[in-house]
Amino acid sequence: TRCDAIMVGRGALGNPWIFGRILHYQSTGEILPEPTDQEKIEASLLHLNMMYDFKGQKGVIEMRKHLGWYLKGIKGAALMRDSINRLENIDDIKKILIDCKREQLD
Question: What's the pLDDT score for residue 51?
Answer without folding.
Answer: 97
